[in-house]
Amino acid sequence: MADKHYFSAIVDRKEDDLVVLEMQFGHEVIIPDIYCPQGIGDGSVLKISIEYDREGTLKRRKEVEDMLKK
Fold it and tell me: Which domain of life is it from (predicted)?
């Protein structure tokens, strides 16, 4: 089963091909607009999820271990 967490972010503004998201506690995150749904604008609320990629993590660990052995 995947570990998922959801939170909201507010679109503060769009700058060229970037979107500035307002997070909790006044933090801002800037992401490429290709990761956002079409039709969003200033003030839009986005629901964001984070999922742990166990397989990707194990693969990355193995790659790092292999590099360190060289």
Answer: Bacteria
